Structures are given as structure tokens and as C-alpha cells.
Amino acid sequence: MSWPVVKLGDICDLFNGYAFKSADYVDESNTLSCRMSNIRPGGKFDIEYNARYLPDDFVEKYEQFLLKNGDVVIAMTDLADSPKILGVPTIIKTNGKSILLNQRVGKLIIKELNKVHFPYLQLALNSSKVRSIYKRFAGGGLQINLGKADLLSVEIPLPPLEEQQKIAAILDAADSLRQKDQQLIDKYNALSQSLFFDMFGDPETNPMGWDIEPFDYFASIDTQMTTDFVKYANVPHIGIANIEKGTGKLINYNLVKDENLTSGKYIFTPEHITYSKIRPNLNKVALPSFNGLSSAGSYPILVHHNKANKLFFTYILRSAFFLDFILQHSTRTNIPKANKSQMKLFKGIAPPISIQNKFGELIQSIESQKHLAQTSLQKSEALFNSLLQRAFNGELS
To answer: What is this structure's pTM?
Structure first.
């Protein structure tokens, strides 16, 4: 089926926000600033996320930038290491607050509501095809910006309103499956964190009175380096970009033979923990299940099994306590970096190995259940993406 293709500017107007200065913000008020960080992945809106307040008298002073409940806003800026919200429209919920539109967020005004179904528009602008157009406009820097003219020139298919509603309803049902799977994974992650604190307490305050030991007691930083990329041709190469922040999931990596490697790389095995020493605030700590090579931007860490459980020590490395320590001792301010000597200054709680091992067994049980949920999520995401592609090819009629 052939649908007309329209430019966003044909069906919408765009009104830019105001460039409030840092000095404008106050500690608290009833007036908030709508910034790009308030637009969350998937087009959700959360004014309380990283909330910034403006003086209440700004409501009258900047009345033209005041948002109403139900207004549509769209992020014009994204950062490379933040959730991808660039160009994703979302509906404002004021919840009784006054909200002023900030710079780099645009107010999207649909010209004819009887021709455009907002949930369909949101899906169209978040489709992979449109997002690839955003990247072309953006130019690929660390901070990605969309201009007003760029955004309004984006083209999307526009079927009749009834067809838009049908497509949105089908995709909403598919998306609910994805959301349920993701919520289950989030619950398993929360359970793991809760289990750690239940068994060991806060590692910073040590309320259970465990012994305190230095880093070398638990593990060694095992920096065996190689440049023999023929010998290791068929193993994965893990760069720090291949470690998902927070979760440690290994993503989008290639085999050594498929990359043009030149400098030395560290050797790791399933016995190692891989810790990113570059930008430790991203909390990239991985547990590889295979042999491979890692970039020099991360350290392979080998625990001493008679004193430390690998899963226990991984949770220590991911803890806010360890992160705060590393950031205080990092050698750079713009792009923090940890080194061996700094990491070895760390001292942490050392419960008996039997208790650590019990924790490891419970975590493995939780992880096995989480793996099932992740498999289900992959299937539900594949279904959603397939339906999304079919929708914009006119195949859901």
C-alpha cells in the first residue's frame, strides 16, 4: 500500500525554548524548567528527573515559554552516553506545576489534529529510518544537535487517521510485552542489590563489622598483554564501548580478526572481571563468559578464590562506595581515569569466603532467571521491530 510521504513541517510547527542561564536557577520553587533530560527513552516525560527550578516570577516574565498540560515537546539535543531521546516527541504532564520550556527542547504544534494521531507520530519519529536521518544531520560529534530546519525537513509516511490509530494500537500492544519483560529484568536487578545489602550491609559504613582488607587481598590486576592477533584471531575483542554501563552486559563486539588492531591488548578468560578504567563514572564492569582480548582502556581483574568470590567482588567494584573512591583518586578531571596504583589504595569489607560464596550461589540463581527474561525481551523486541518495519511499509492493513 502506498501512503503519502510528508515533511514534518507540513503537519507541525516548532517553537524553540528559552536559553535560561545557570544563575537563573534556584534551590526550589513551583516553577520547573523543561530540559532535554526530562524526555526519557521511549518518549516518556518525567519533570522530576534531574529537576531544575526557576523563580516563580519567571512564569509571567517568560509567559510565551509556559507549557500547558498536553503540549508536545521534542528534544533537539542528545549526548553520546545518554539514553537516545534526540528527536523523540513526548506529551507534557504538568501535575499542577508551572513548566517553562528550555533551550534545546522544542514545542511541537500539530497543525491539524484531525489528520495526525500523536502516538503514530511518536512511533514514526522514533523509527530506525528516521533516527538514521537524525544522525546524518547531527554530524556525529559528542554532543548531537538538531536544527529546527533539519527536524522540520524529516519525511514520514502519513496514512489516513484511522490507519494511524490502528498501527499505534497494534504497536502499543507489542510494546507492552517489551515493557513487561524489561520490568521483570529490573526487578531481578533490584533483588540482587537488595540481597547484597541484606547479607553484607553498606560497604562504606560496614554496620556488620566485617574485616577491612586492601584491594590486593581480594584480587590482582592481571595485565598480560599481547600483539599476537593471529593467535587470537577467532576470539572476541572487547573495547570499553562494548561494555554496557551499569549492567556490564557485553554488546556489539567483533572478533579480533574483524578489527584492524595495532596496539597491545590485554588477555582475559571467564575467570576475569573486566573493569573500564576510562570514565569510571559510567560503571562499566563486565563478567565475560569466554576468552578474549580487551582494550588497554580496561583492566582484567583476577580474584583470589581462597579469599574472594568473583560475584561478590564484582558487586564491590560496581558499588557507589568504590566509584566514589576511584573518582576521588582519578588522575584527570575532564575524562576521569583510574590506574593500578590508585585502585590498589582501595580497602573494602572482607566477609568470610563461605558467606561470599553463598551470595554468589544466590546471585547465579537470580541471573539464571534473569537470563530467561532477557531471552523473552529479545523476542518481544524482535516482534516489535518487525511490526514497526511492516507498519511503515504499509503491511499492517
So the answer is: 0.74
